[in-house]
């Protein structure tokens, strides 16, 4: 694996860590400041919903200007936003209205780095190595869960709410510095096979050109569209875990912020262990079916988390959730890169990130709203059943089960 791929992985890890850190601070602080379920839903939506626009616009910009330039834009934008959140906390407290505005700004450009690294990757490695390289990039999905959840509690205790945002500010500064070292690429570059021969764009849509729609000039093969639909429902049904987990920790486990951090850290550890499973799963010929099974198993893993009052059982459930997360991301990214012409990767991954990162807060908002009317256990059980149900329905879609070779 080239040094550029490793630097790309580090930049994505920093960007993802900053994003997760902000979300955990917001979710945990909601309870501390006595915000209602509706207010909590609103702040989570503010943190994630702008990604719907930012992901699509950012993806279009990546295809036009190149992934490196757009990573610099995201790094500079979020660095300034984190400094603004710090200033707000130090000078005037973390008021609800100001928090919504600045968290909105932080979420708007967050999808750009994700789309950029997935677009960058096929320009740095041979097509035959995509699965392994995408697995390496999923460290940027897994490690931030371990680190951000582990440091949020101690950081809040030591420095308070406002100064805590200097942590993601430093991380986005790191993204800027690393991106400056990455190679400059042209806006459009073809995938290359191991022998060095170009892989024609037409051959990257192995479903024989079956397309359901055009999104502007982006041709979306049926298999890619099915994968996007599965991921949207997967993240939506997982969303309620975010606002519910603090209540599970307090009411079921009779614990506090350190246990909350521990559970998210265990999810991240499981995701790191999932790195072992991802490469062989990426090589399977039916990635859509693989991910549908993973999504169903994720729903099964959520059930004991809803029912237990044992920390050990909760830890095992979180470990299982994390273990399934990494293979899902790597399999999906590799399949989308193969299904879609290289000149459209920025748009596709922008749309993909916009959909899933928006589905997560919508699910979280629904869970937070439901908490005003029912118990955390009921909300988690409903999420688990929905996750399993959507995954089984997805398996009935022929395009999702199709071979990708």
From TrEMBL:
The record gives the membrane topology as: Multi-pass membrane protein
Question: Where is it mainly found?
Answer: membrane
UniProt entry keywords in alphabetical sequence? Cell membrane, Membrane, Transmembrane, Transmembrane helix
Q: Does the keyword Transcription regulation apply?
A: no
Kindly give the InterPro entries that the UniProt entry links to this protein: MFS, MFS_trans_sf
Q: SUPFAM superfamilies from the entry?
A: MFS general substrate transporter (SSF103473)
**Source organism, top-level taxon:** Bacteria
UniProt xrefs under CDD domains: MFS_MefA_like
**Cellular location of this protein?**
Cell membrane
**TM annotation in the entry:** 7-30, 42-63, 75-94, 100-121, 133-153, 165-182, 218-237, 257-277, 313-331, 351-371, 377-400
Question: Which Pfam family, giving just one, matches this sequence?
Answer: MFS_1
**Can you name this protein?**
MFS transporter
């Amino acid at each position: 694996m080239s040094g550029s791929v490793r630097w790309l992985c580090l930049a994505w890890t920093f960007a993802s860590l900053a994003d997760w850190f902000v979300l955990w601070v917001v979710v945990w602080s909601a309870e501390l400041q006595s915000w209602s379920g509706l207010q909590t839903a609103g702040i989570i939506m503010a943190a994630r919903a702008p990604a719907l626009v930012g992901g699509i616009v950012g993806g279009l910009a990546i295809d036009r200007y190149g992934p490196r330039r757009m990573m610099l834009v995201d790094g500079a934008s979020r660095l300034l936003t984190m400094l603004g959140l710090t200033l707000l906390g130090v000078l005037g407290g973390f008021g609800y209205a100001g928090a919504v505005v600045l968290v909105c700004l932080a979420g708007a450009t967050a999808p750009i780095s994700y789309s950029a690294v997935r677009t960058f990757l096929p320009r740095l490695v041979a097509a035959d190595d995509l699965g392994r390289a995408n697995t390496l990039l999923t460290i940027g999905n897994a490690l931030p869960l371990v680190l951000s959840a582990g440091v949020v509690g101690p950081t809040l205790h030591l420095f308070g709410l406002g100064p805590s945002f200097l942590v993601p500010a430093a991380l986005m500064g790191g993204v800027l510095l690393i991106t400056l070292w990455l190679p400059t690429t042209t806006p459009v570059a073809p995938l290359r096979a191991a022998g060095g021969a170009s892989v024609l764009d037409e051959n990257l849509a192995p479903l024989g050109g079956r397309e359901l729609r055009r999104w502007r000039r982006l041709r979306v093969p049926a298999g890619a569209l099915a994968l996007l639909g599965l991921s949207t429902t997967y993240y939506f049904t997982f969303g309620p875990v975010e606002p519910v987990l603090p209540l599970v920790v307090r009411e079921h486990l009779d614990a506090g912020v350190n246990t909350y951090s521990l559970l998210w850290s265990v999810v991240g550890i499981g995701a790191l262990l999932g790195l072992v499973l991802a490469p062989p799963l990426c090589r399977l010929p039916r990635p859509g079916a693989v991910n549908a099974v993973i999504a169903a198993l994720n729903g099964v893993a959520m059930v004991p988390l809803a029912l237990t009052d044992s920390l050990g059982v909760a830890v095992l459930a979180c470990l299982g959730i994390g273990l399934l997360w990494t293979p899902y991301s790597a399999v999906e990214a590799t399949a989308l890169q193969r299904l879609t012409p290289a000149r459209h990767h920025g748009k596709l991954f922008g749309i993909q990130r916009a959909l899933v990162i928006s589905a997560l807060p919508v699910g979280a908002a629904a869970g937070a709203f439901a908490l005003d009317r029912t118990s955390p256990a009921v909300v988690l059980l409903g999420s688990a059943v929905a996750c399993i149900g959507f995954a089984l329905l997805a398996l009935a879609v022929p395009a999702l089960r199709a071979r990708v070779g």
